[in-house]
Structures are given as structure tokens and as C-alpha cells.
Amino acid sequence: MNKYIETSHYDALIVGARCAGAATAMLLARQGARVLLIDRAMAGTDTMSTHALMRGAVMSLHRWGLLDTVANCGTPAIRQTSFRYGNEDITLALKSRDGVDALYAPRRYVLDSILVEAARDAGAEVMHFTSLTELKFTGDRVTGAVLVHGSDTMEITADLVIGADGTGSSVARMVGAETTHSMKHATASLYGYVPGLDNEGYRWAYTLGAGAGAIPTNDGMHCVFTSIPTDMRKRVMTGGVQSVYRVMLRMMMPEIADAASATADKIVRFGGIRGYLRKAHGPGWALVGDAGYFKDPLTAHGITDAFRDAELLARAVAHGTEGAMQVYEVVRDELSLPLLRITDRIAACDWTMPELQSLHKELNRIMNHEVTEMAEMMPAAAAPRVAA
Ligand SMILES: Cc1cc2nc3c(=O)[nH]c(=O)nc-3n(C[C@H](O)[C@H](O)[C@H](O)COP(=O)(O)OP(=O)(O)OC[C@H]3O[C@@H](n4cnc5c(N)ncnc54)[C@H](O)[C@@H]3O)c2cc1C
User: Fold this and answer.
1) Is the pLDDT of residue 144 over 60?
2) How sure is the predictor about 379, in pLDDT bands with cuts at 50, 70 and 90?
3) How far is the CA of 292 from the centre of ligand 1 (A)?
4) How many domains does the chain fold into?
């Protein structure tokens, strides 16, 4: 029988407890806000990702005092990146900058759990197996929500409801968040976890119209993936996932193709989603992470941008004005649009190898600009506030 639990009030309800939502909950709770963080999924689970954090994300973890925890969970340090364009190999050593001398690619059950624990430590209430089913409005302002946890239904009120609930965001749908920019291209990918490969850093490889990569992650595994444009997906998939995975790796990373296809535990398939930017806030609501902004995973930048926007949103909430929320949206859009557009250009998969190299140089310039902007905007690590 359904139990109906009476209303509690929160400064912020955050829907979705992964990299965007848990980071935002932690930052708001550290600012002293009363936060409820919910997720319909079980705690400590994996989700679709090839895990590669870029410099901006590692800087955020460092600022938040969580980088050592990530490293101490056995997440291998990445000190170089290599790109293969057809037959040409380019290897770049990671430059030490802004307190970051290594990158990391933690499994999501590692990263998201660390963020959720940090949110809890800061004083946020955390409920898994809890779904948002309805938003409550007073006039056009979101003022609360109906949540379902098992057979219990609870209604809460909140000054702000934050949708950190991913690409299929219920919050975005329920508030009617407008899509302000839509991209044209998407890639599909196949990936699996492969044991026994040497840590040679992030490895990306390309041939005409397709990409592949090997990313060192936890438990002695590499996440080994291949990407193809979605309009080729049906044709390529007719051979079956295992053989497509093997054939594509043989084309781009022959040195690991047989080992990867023989030992990958299970091949995960992502069908592709076109990138978008949605309106980031409205009366009583805001979006963060994939809920408000998604780009093709080929540039491996979703987690980095989710962390960036968690910080921007937390700062806006601390100011507590509509103007500050408007600034959140403007800054997010200014930093995101160049990334979204270059990612879409790369996801078109219509380049020659020299063209792709130029696109990667432009991507690198845009990422460096983002890191510089974030380093200027964000103060050095704030001491975590320990919950009473
Ligand atoms: C194949 C693939 C590879 C990728 N590789 C990389 C990479 O290498 N590097 C990188 O930086 N990014 C990568 N990304 C992108 C990255 O995974 C996303 O940007 C990131 O997961 C976004 O995090 P999020 O917290 O916004 O959303 P999500 O991780 O999608 O989390 C949303 C959460 O909301 C919960 N939720 C949804 N609806 C409700 C509801 N109604 N009630 C309660 N809870 C709800 C879900 O259970 C989920 O846990 C990749 C993405 C894909 C698909």
C-alpha cells in the first residue's frame, strides 16, 4: 500500500545523482544550502561512458579536494595522449598546468560514488531508488515536486528544482525547457573493458569516417571503443556487434584488436544522440549537465563540462538573484557553443586526415580557452564544510 509522506522544504532539490547532480549538490551543501539529491537508480552503479576526464574536470576535482580520493581508488594517472591519423602517429606529453600534472579516467561507479559521498559529507540528503514523477507549480514558478521511493510517495517543496537527470531529462520536459541550439550529426559507439593492456595514456585513432580509442581506467582495465556516424550504423551493425568491434579495431588499432575483441567482457552499444543546448533556467528551475547541454561523446568532454556547469550554477545560486541565473546561462552558452560546434563538425565524420588534425587543433584551442576562463573565474580550493 502507498504511504504518503508529508512535505519537507529544501533550498534545492536535485534530480540525478551522477557527475552533474552530485557535484552541484556537494557545492550547494558546502555553501550551507539544504539540499535533497535523488536518483532513480541504485547507488554506486556504472553508466555509459568512456570515462576520459579532460584537464578542466581534473582541475575541478583538485579544487573540490577530491582528486586524491579518485587517484587512491586505483585510477591510473594519464601522462600522455596519442593520436593516430591513418598511418601517422603523434604523441603529446601532458604539460603540467594549474596544479594538474596527470589526467584520469575513473569508472563511473568510482567517480559518481565519490561525488555522492562528498555531497553527503557536506550535509546533502541523498536518496537513491527515488524518482521525480511530477513538478508542482505556483503560477509559472516551480515550487515543489512529487517523488516516489518504492511504494512511498512524498511531496516536497523547494526554492529551486535542478534537473541533472541526463539527456532524457524529466525536469526539462516538465518545465518545457526550450532547445536553443540543435546539432546535425551524431556518432554511434561500441565499447568494452579490456584487461592486460599497458598504460600508454589516452590513445585515439582515426581512419576515414570512423574513430577508435583506448582509455586506461580502474581495475587494470582499458575502455576500448570504436565510433561511427549513425547513418552508417545499420549497415555496419549487420555483421553483429562483436565482429564490427573487431573489424573496426583491426582497421585503426591493429596492435590491440585481437586482444580487445577476445577479452572484452561485454560490448556496450550507444546509438548516438545529436548535440543540443537547452535553456538553462526559468522560474524555480535550472538544468545542469546533459539535461541542459549534450554533445557527441567523440570529443569526450561531457563530464568536464558537467563539472564546469555545476560550479557556475552553484555560484549563481549563492548570489540568489534572477540576474545571477541569467549569468549562469550566458556563461554556460558562451563556453559551450564553440565546443558544441567543433564536436558536431568532428561527429560529421566527413573529414580527410589533414582536416581532422586541423579540427583537433581547433578543439584543443577551445579547450585551453575554457580551462583559462575557469581558472580565472574559480577561486583556489575552498575548504569543504563538514556537516554538523
Ligand atoms: C558512449 C558514451 C561515452 C562517453 N564518454 C565520455 C568520456 O570519455 N568523457 C566525458 O567527459 N564524457 C563522456 N560521455 C558523456 C558523459 O557520460 C555525460 O556527459 C555525463 O554522464 C553527464 O552526466 P549527468 O550527471 O549530466 O547525467 P547522467 O550521467 O546521465 O545521470 C543522470 C542521472 O539522472 C537519473 N534520473 C533520470 N531521470 C530521473 C528521474 N525522473 N528521477 C530520478 N532520477 C532520474 C538517472 O538515473 C541518472 O543516474 C560519454 C557519453 C556516452 C554516451
Assistant:
1) yes
2) low
3) 11
4) 2
Same domain, residue pair 179 and 192: no
Ligand 1 atom at shortest distance from the alpha carbon of 164: 26
Return the closest-CA partner of residue 350 out of 239, 187, 222: 187
Are 115 and 151 contained in the same domain? yes
* Averaged pLDDT for residues 281-295: 98
Where are the extended beta strands (E) located within the chain?
Answer: 3-5, 9-15, 35-38, 80-85, 88-93, 125-127, 130-138, 141-149, 152-163, 179-182, 187-195, 202-207, 210-216, 221-229, 268-270, 276-278, 281-282, 285-287, 293-294
CATH code for the domain in which residue 246 is found: 3.30.9.40
Condensed to tens digits (0 to 9), the pLDDT of residues 162-184 reads 999 999 999 999 999 999 999 99
| Predicted confidence (pLDDT) per residue in 3-43, tens digit | 555 569 999 999 999 999 999 999 999 999 999 999 999 99
Which pLDDT score, from 0 to 100, does residue 6 have?
56
Domain range spanning residue 233? 187-270
Choice between 46 and 113, residue whose per-residue pLDDT is larger: 113
- Model confidence at 386: pLDDT above 70: no
CATH number for the domain harbouring residue 293: 3.50.50.60
Q: Is 157 in the same domain as 287?
A: yes
Ligand 1 midpoint to CA 17 (Å): 10
In a domain, 365, yes or no: no
**Mutation test residue for ligand 1: of 14, 45, 50, the one with most atoms within 8 Å of CB:** 50
Is 290 touching ligand 1 by the criterion CB < 6 Å? yes
Same domain, 45 and 114: yes
In angstroms, what is the span from residue 15 Cα to ligand 1's centroid?
12
Residues 37 and 62 in one domain: yes
